[in-house]
Amino acid sequence: MAKKVVTMGEIMLRLSTPGYQRFTQAESFDVVYGGGEANVAVSLANYGFDAHFVSKLPENPIGQSAINHLRRFGVNTDYIAKGGERVGIYYLETGASMRPSKVVYDRANSSIAEASSKDFDFDAIFKDAAWFHFSGITPALSETAAVLTEEALKAAKRNNVTVSVDLNYRKKLWTPERAKEVMSNLMQYVDVCIGNEEDAEKVLGFKPGETDVTKGELQLEGYKDIFKQMKEQFGFKYVVTTLRESYSASDNGWSALIYNGEEFYHSKKYDVRIVDRVGGGDSFAGGLIYGLLAKDDFKQALEFAVGASALKHTINGDFNLVTVDEVETLIQGDASGRVQR
Amino acid sequence: MAKKVVTMGEIMLRLSTPGYQRFTQAESFDVVYGGGEANVAVSLANYGFDAHFVSKLPENPIGQSAINHLRRFGVNTDYIAKGGERVGIYYLETGASMRPSKVVYDRANSSIAEASSKDFDFDAIFKDAAWFHFSGITPALSETAAVLTEEALKAAKRNNVTVSVDLNYRKKLWTPERAKEVMSNLMQYVDVCIGNEEDAEKVLGFKPGETDVTKGELQLEGYKDIFKQMKEQFGFKYVVTTLRESYSASDNGWSALIYNGEEFYHSKKYDVRIVDRVGGGDSFAGGLIYGLLAKDDFKQALEFAVGASALKHTINGDFNLVTVDEVETLIQGDASGRVQR
Amino acid sequence: MAKKVVTMGEIMLRLSTPGYQRFTQAESFDVVYGGGEANVAVSLANYGFDAHFVSKLPENPIGQSAINHLRRFGVNTDYIAKGGERVGIYYLETGASMRPSKVVYDRANSSIAEASSKDFDFDAIFKDAAWFHFSGITPALSETAAVLTEEALKAAKRNNVTVSVDLNYRKKLWTPERAKEVMSNLMQYVDVCIGNEEDAEKVLGFKPGETDVTKGELQLEGYKDIFKQMKEQFGFKYVVTTLRESYSASDNGWSALIYNGEEFYHSKKYDVRIVDRVGGGDSFAGGLIYGLLAKDDFKQALEFAVGASALKHTINGDFNLVTVDEVETLIQGDASGRVQR
Amino acid sequence: MAKKVVTMGEIMLRLSTPGYQRFTQAESFDVVYGGGEANVAVSLANYGFDAHFVSKLPENPIGQSAINHLRRFGVNTDYIAKGGERVGIYYLETGASMRPSKVVYDRANSSIAEASSKDFDFDAIFKDAAWFHFSGITPALSETAAVLTEEALKAAKRNNVTVSVDLNYRKKLWTPERAKEVMSNLMQYVDVCIGNEEDAEKVLGFKPGETDVTKGELQLEGYKDIFKQMKEQFGFKYVVTTLRESYSASDNGWSALIYNGEEFYHSKKYDVRIVDRVGGGDSFAGGLIYGLLAKDDFKQALEFAVGASALKHTINGDFNLVTVDEVETLIQGDASGRVQR
Amino acid sequence: MAKKVVTMGEIMLRLSTPGYQRFTQAESFDVVYGGGEANVAVSLANYGFDAHFVSKLPENPIGQSAINHLRRFGVNTDYIAKGGERVGIYYLETGASMRPSKVVYDRANSSIAEASSKDFDFDAIFKDAAWFHFSGITPALSETAAVLTEEALKAAKRNNVTVSVDLNYRKKLWTPERAKEVMSNLMQYVDVCIGNEEDAEKVLGFKPGETDVTKGELQLEGYKDIFKQMKEQFGFKYVVTTLRESYSASDNGWSALIYNGEEFYHSKKYDVRIVDRVGGGDSFAGGLIYGLLAKDDFKQALEFAVGASALKHTINGDFNLVTVDEVETLIQGDASGRVQR
Amino acid sequence: MAKKVVTMGEIMLRLSTPGYQRFTQAESFDVVYGGGEANVAVSLANYGFDAHFVSKLPENPIGQSAINHLRRFGVNTDYIAKGGERVGIYYLETGASMRPSKVVYDRANSSIAEASSKDFDFDAIFKDAAWFHFSGITPALSETAAVLTEEALKAAKRNNVTVSVDLNYRKKLWTPERAKEVMSNLMQYVDVCIGNEEDAEKVLGFKPGETDVTKGELQLEGYKDIFKQMKEQFGFKYVVTTLRESYSASDNGWSALIYNGEEFYHSKKYDVRIVDRVGGGDSFAGGLIYGLLAKDDFKQALEFAVGASALKHTINGDFNLVTVDEVETLIQGDASGRVQR
């Protein structure tokens, strides 16, 4: 029987311009629904888990459409509470070459930002669950959301559920000070911590090295030092980061680094021609959870996560619609892209 | 030189499902921008006036897109203030036959709802203006918006500008009690009042007759009584209403009634096959303002308004994209729809 | 807790031309998935039941897409077997005015047509189920499908499940002789029988009256005689038919007739402007099952079914995407199609 | 072996706004290619004739696309000359309800308007041909086109080809005076003359009765008088007109009248819900030519022509994409629009 | 007068997801019709030949659409037989970067797979023909198709027609054993043999070298050995292969190798940014046939074929829509892609 | 207050095939309006200037649509004269990889080509203007257009307006001889001259070096010699050229060279992945005018121009829809294309 895995957070309406249109050119928006933890849930459903997404959505057809979008891709939506005022929105303009993609958020006052623990029966939710994943976005949504997140984490731990976090700092949602205050406390419940240098600094206060990500350079050494500090301070089982080399909006290098307290492992690197990079980090988290649950070796888990998320960059929408077989074929070496008949 | 006319209110992002899709089927939304007074401004620009729309929009690409949409159709946007958090949204699902169109609003906390009179130089705005139009939606947006509306009205009167209102009761925005409180006060500045029975009752407290609009019946007599009361209490120069007979979501009857204190005049009635009925009432207001400014006879003004708004029902989007010539051809009797080569 | 209801049959890929294009004009096909019993399952899921669809689909992305389409609209797909060669297809060209819609079937050798009872655990499927629905299409798919259908029916009866059938004669699938042979036997398991005159004649051998459906005439009297015979011979609890008056491909009259052995009841009639009439009969069956399960009065059940299926004609695709509330609003009298804000 | 039929004229690029968009809303144009005689050729190819279209098109990809569009629908394009400067264009905005469709022509200086008889070997073209059709548009294109048309007609007569004309007056192309001068001369070659009252007056100088077509009234009696005069003066074998009752841009009545010198025959009338009425008259001409070539009875020929062209109104684009079988089904009485499975 | 060339095989309906959508995301499919030999016929028609495609298609609108698609692009369809049950289908999902394109076939029981020589008059078909081309797909469709292919080949040879084959092994259609049995026999009729290493091994039993195509490596030496064996055993005039270096689904290297029994010639190599690579091999065959018929030098023929098929990778759909001039411009050295005004 | 800048020329309807379709595949055209000087005006409006476009357009809905398109993006259209026959057209097929983009012009007899100085009040137009820009296309349109251009230039100089020209030789519009005759005379009014080698040779008669642009090579030295000659002969303040290295239709190198009479400055070079390169040169001119008006340093002006026009290559349509901030971010070094949230 499929393992039960749980993620909790916001699912937003994503309104993106078709093709490479700028916002001011758009006469229509492509519609999908997505959000950090929802995206992770879809990855996990695709890999065969009994994936549950916990959130709150208004009782209107837009909220229903978000639910339907999740159901379509196999996520169990039974734990989604109904109520509140609105579905959060983000507008997306897809960049190309030296023109960056642009995101405009309109997510204040969404149903999940105003939800409380009365909306959920967390012990039922975490009963028999193998994994719980959340991101730093969820507690940043509002003060009640921060409280809600901690209640979920307590229940998860009560039910012996492994917990992962994607730090995911969002400067539009909170200040580094507030982030540190909230997130440092939540780290006590976390087993696996995913976050890049910016996250580590803004969310947890670890000083990054001199990496200048806009220059597409990577300084693995800088990460090692930070990872050791993070492991030491919070006792994570694994500290993990993706390593994006942004050559342009069209082409990126993509790899990842994991630290298990003893050893650093840097994955294979992929050069990806980008179709849609939004959700890339979430697909990495989804792949990593699969890998750590299904594979014996944390290095193989990382390779799965990196291959899965490399593939995500070739898929439209927030969700990573790939199967375990497709990821395995890639990581076992066939990146030739030959037609499969 | 073209007469200067001014409208003030909210312009929203309208997200509508293509074809006759239901919300839960939509993979894309058609994008236009519209709102009661913005729609009126576009009508007036089309008829050759120097039409100004006063509002506030955030400094982001969505706000800019709303401005561009207005500019495209000839509206002067120089008086639009920049700032605030968001562009209000309404979702639209177009009905057919016995399935009604459905609107879901997500307009709370929009920039204009949070604007104050500091954002506008009303004396500059109304200098040399011939007309000011607003609707009952604008003061309903927020308490500050109600204050803002009165300040605009005072300035308009200070500058000897004729004022029209479309009562337009919106139950999602305020209660009848609050509506009455605010709107009764604002009526002192109004010369021309447009509103149907529901508006008259909910906004101004006049008791309607027994018309049951869902049955598609019309009781002209009931209106006459109410119109007389309205004229008496508020001293309007004209009291006007559209008369919609909703046979179905696909076919409507459409006419209007005007009262100048002495005489009632019921326009010609059109049977319209509907392409998009949203903005029908606004196109009527726009046509009426044109008629009263450009024609000698209030009856001819009404016929223009009804013809213009009948045509609106055949046009996608909130805006009524017709010329004076097209309306005149229709009201002079050619409703045959023969191809114009 | 939601009642469990089960339907079984084929779900096909529907490829329809956009707009009113003819097949020879099409450069793209709109894609949905549908089929008689699948459509009924979606209706039942929309009305809040725990609706299960039983079928077989190949293990390829087209089969997966059919499953996802059902999941999106709330149908439980856990009982769908995987295997076989292909998803059946039907091509649809939407007519208008005097040009009829055209369906081209390409459904031979689909997975469900080649499925056997080994693919399903019928006792698990019907455990705690309240209703089972199938149509005359399923046993017509192949000889093995006819055997499979009877095994399902036996299991349903073993588990005390109420059974309904929609006779749905398809001349491309079998001859009247073969239909009679197979279907007459299956009627012993049926409680509620839905079928029009053509079905009654071709499938069960009852001689119709002189109704000429292409002329848009209806002869209720002819039906009464047949219904009595059907009731007598097979002991149905209810015999039901929809009554379509096909004025043109764009406009139809739509009502229904039910007989409970004592009384004939002819529903309200709706004149529908058609958006998509495919699945109209299935949406009627779905509405009827809801009505008979949720309402005390078989007449009210019929009114619900007719209102629901009238609404279906305004919705694109095979599925009837309406809620109980929307149907109730219509059958309680508001067919005005006024915008719902 | 299929009969050879020939038409000659202009084929234009048609740029139409999608849906019911106005020109000023369009961000894309739908593309087809069409023109009076090209449309007739497609009808004739659909009915199984060896249909040839004679024209001239520039040697560029737009000219090639026009050829491909004809080939796709079975027209033989071997007689199309290559050269000249441009493909003529017409812009089309599709109306609805009381808003008329609008055509903007941009056809001056097209290749066919500047073609001469050196571009064509008319005796080869008309060898073994059964019919030649042209319209009043072709000689109106330019002075050289008028000369070219007469040369074609002389060659047709030399080869014993039956000739039909659709008078088709276009006020943007020439004056009534010039039309009369050119067309009166060409009538000597014509066997079958199609034209409505406006054509008869503007092109041939026959005084119409008091029919006011914008009022949707029809005065059959007025036609009879004109038809007799036309027959008398030019010796036509048949004089024919379509009778359009333009209720609105969405709904028309459609029938036709034929006179064989002895008898007037008024066809069955169809009420059509319009998808695209452009090319309606051409589809009538195509149907009439088929009818007169394939049927014994001129009344049956007329019924075929009317049925065929009624169906055209339900089909997008200039071309009438229907088969003989589809027309026969309709004229034999099935206008119910029931789905054909 | 244009040379007559003939190809024979299956033309399928191709249903491809728009953009880079995965199958499970698709709400519509783009529609073209294509298949190995049909694609070759279109290339040959584009190059000015009198190109005939021989096949069988059902008498329904889908079959007609396939014919129309061929006619549009200049292929003569007079030899296509009518009858049988269905048009074969292939579903296509376009890959990007490391995600491969995916093809799902649904082609069993198509009309051509069930055709027999009674459907064709091969001596008429090959009368005055200069070339006949077929692929290894056609005899693989069914046992009757294998018989049919040999009958066509015998007739071609009877009529002194040059014959080319593209070996094109399809593992979904037959085993290497069956392929060898059938194809080895057919090789006696072949003058020009096109096939890569996999084809040579699976279809003809020649042992390939150690080339691992998934690694994007090329081993020209390995080919030379095989080519010599092929030439020796079957007496081909030319043995030819394309050489694809699959860097990713987005970028490929593309060249070709030819052997005339004396000399090996390796063409120029192109690095192509891929729009649609399906039909790349067919466009090579089409270019090669053109080259061998129109050019004196087999090396120039090969360069034409490689240039033509490099261009194909930039064109949507199965067909290579380029002219001789466009190919010549490329192979004479202008690959700069500068705008042509 | 924003500086007033003026450009004058033709705005055409651009009809482009969607995606990478070839013309013969297109069933629709994407619609924008553009032209050299109109594109420059839009750039200048985006950068905050009071940008005016001077032209003439017919009084029909296509002309109005061109005006609306300009207004939408902030250009003042008050100086556009109304009249004449048609809007010029250009058809665009977007290339990829080694397949070049293709432009087919159909611009003869457009309204602006037939305009005269009576249509414009040039002294009003240039009153208080800071800059006037035109291209070599405008005087090439017709003899009257050449006269009109000189009249505009005289008025500009009379009003002390700085003048720039983009030489832009178009071989379809005139011969090098005629170009030299007209343009050499106009150079007396010009302060800033933009043009590449081909322009310098064809329009002004300066002999280029041995650069072969189709080979993607650049010979800066050759330019230096020509620039000196140009400066000497015409007294330009600046001579400027863009330097395009056309690797393929998908990827270009992009930089520029400026000469102020003393110093040559070669900008940074960008490698651009192309979305739409039409209007690239115009966006460079727009950026250069901004730079020279807003920056102290001509080198910084050039960097702005190159950065702006590099970004243009990533934007659909003729217009460069970027802000000053976006260009500054790029030229200050962030070409990483990271998502902006």
TrEMBL record, chains A, B, C, D, E, F:
Stored CDD domains: KdgK (cd01166)
A single GO molecular function term of this UniProt record: kinase activity
Keyword Kinase applies: yes
The keyword Transferase is annotated on this UniProt entry: yes
Gene3D superfamilies the record matches: 3.40.1190.20
One Pfam family this sequence matches: PfkB
Domain Carbohydrate kinase PfkB: 3-312
Keyword terms of this UniProt record: Kinase, Transferase
Xref: PANTHER family: 2-DEHYDRO-3-DEOXYGLUCONOKINASE_2-DEHYDRO-3-DEOXYGALACTONOKINASE, SUGAR KINASE
Record-stated family: Belongs to the carbohydrate kinase PfkB family.
Protein name per its UniProtKB record: 2-dehydro-3-deoxygluconokinase
Organism for this UniProt entry: Marinisporobacter balticus
